Amino acid sequence: MDKKIIGIDLGGTTAKFAIMTPEGEIQQKWSIDSNVLDDGSHIVPDIVESINHHLGLYGMKPEDFIGIGMGTPGSVDQEAGTVIGAYNLNWTTLQPVREQIETGTNIKLAIDNDANVAALGERWKGAGENNPDVVFITLGTGVGGGIVAAGQLLHGAAGCAGEIGHITVDPHGYQCTCGKRGCLETVSSATGVVRVARTLAEEYAGDSQLKQLLDDGEEITSKDVFELAQADDALALMVVDKVCFYLGLACGNLGNTLNPASIVIGGGVSAAGEFLRSRVEKYFNEFTFPQVQESTKIKLAELGNEAGVIGAGSLALQFA
Amino acid sequence: MDKKIIGIDLGGTTAKFAIMTPEGEIQQKWSIDSNVLDDGSHIVPDIVESINHHLGLYGMKPEDFIGIGMGTPGSVDQEAGTVIGAYNLNWTTLQPVREQIETGTNIKLAIDNDANVAALGERWKGAGENNPDVVFITLGTGVGGGIVAAGQLLHGAAGCAGEIGHITVDPHGYQCTCGKRGCLETVSSATGVVRVARTLAEEYAGDSQLKQLLDDGEEITSKDVFELAQADDALALMVVDKVCFYLGLACGNLGNTLNPASIVIGGGVSAAGEFLRSRVEKYFNEFTFPQVQESTKIKLAELGNEAGVIGAGSLALQFA
């Protein structure tokens, strides 16, 4: 039997697992709840137990695996195999994740942060078509990202490479949680879209259901904004246009700087699909020079939730 | 005798040569004029002749060399070893540079564009301190750049990676020769600095020697602007502040995206030295989040004109 890899995508709610071939074909998958009680001290033991349990179930041994790859929230030290500052896991102190998992499973572990492994997944088996130069942007509660350049995942000097959500798209823009102003995240995350809607609504006087909802004090979501825009609500269309302007500016500068084969947009906000993509592309073309327009494509993510577990698995290939 | 490398930095005026150790220590250097007549058809034969002549002079043979590395203007196809569109050399058609030089010298050749090899040089032996993640920006007639990330020079999908001069720093800014608006080059190249000076002078009413010179129709240079600013000319200080705002914004977003250990600023405009660097750094800090401020440094280039020939030489190490 050819050796397999295991991918783990750890999140604040669940940990997803997959047993895959080295070619990235998922053969088994399962998930467990993330028990964040007691400073998250149950999380890694639960992962170890779940792996050992499933290996028993499938009649597999540690020697059947090339390794385990794992994506996690927080700041990851890939060399040391440790994680710190994963607040949705209640991990505030340094966690020796690799040591615990390797000791508990007798399989080698490689680890990286969740946005990076999602980028690896989309690049390997998704919209990135395994190209050596791919940028991934995830538009969710926040805006995250990962960059693969010349075939390598970038980490930078202090692990901050790929922090696309903190590209400054408006020097005089909204205050961001990171401490500075005008970050992409403040205008294109799920909460950012709503923020832009509230701002534009204040000055908007025409007919609009979105305006009505906001004036009535209703709670709205970024999904509402995109749905209303697709139903031709004038204010919602203005909001989407502004959000796509900022996304196109950020993508344009990623294109001018890195000239990736594709910039792949994923995460909850990207559920708006082609309606979003085509508008980002319009501004991307405005903010890039001709050779980049021709060679860098704006694409939608294809793997959805599986990007993380597949990309995590790919980390284990370094042990092959 | 340990084998050596040869670096060639080809420009529109001269071609510079250096014989170096594999550690980057220059042992011999010389230069020849670039003869751009007859569609630049003499350039490569002149280079071949000059190399063979100097090897004879120093009593060296092709076998004494690991290889030749070369930086050139224009669009370079590294795989094919060809160059096209180097207008200052009058190379408008495809030039089989590698084939000609390898045949003429019996030494292997690697080739890349001039901004990229200067980046390699500053990263290897200059301000980059041989760190795996270094960005180089050159502020000259235009604005060029090169990016080394995870130890590799980035080219991107169509060779446009590192085109830092075309980062959009003002979506409603000046028209650029590349076809779009608000490129960094339009406001921070030597001509860009003068352009900013002319614009700000129109609205400026106070006392200023720079204002006087412009109103009198004098030709001014970016050097004049920086000298007047250092002599406390109020308008010149405003111009420098605006130029550094844009440079700080572009460097900030390179920091947020790539988190290099350093962003190295070179080229003619960087002759303004610490006066320029400290102001770029001020805005860089405004446009980056704390971890990037701490781990990415803004530095001045250290190698001057030698960056190109040293970086070009380093390309030859791939044959070692």
From TrEMBL, chains A, B:
CDD domains: ASKHA_NBD_ROK_BsGLK-like. The keyword Methyltransferase does not apply. InterPro entries: ATPase_NBD (IPR043129), ROK (IPR000600), ROK_cs (IPR049874), ROK_glcA (IPR004654). This is Glucokinase. One of its GO terms (biological process) is glycolytic process. Belongs to the ROK (NagC/XylR) family. Keywords: ATP-binding, Kinase, Nucleotide-binding, Transferase. Its EC number is 2.7.1.2. GO terms for molecular function: ATP binding; glucokinase activity. GO terms for cellular component: cytoplasm. It holds the Pfam family ROK. Transmembrane segments: none annotated. It comes from the Bacteria. The keyword ATP-binding applies.
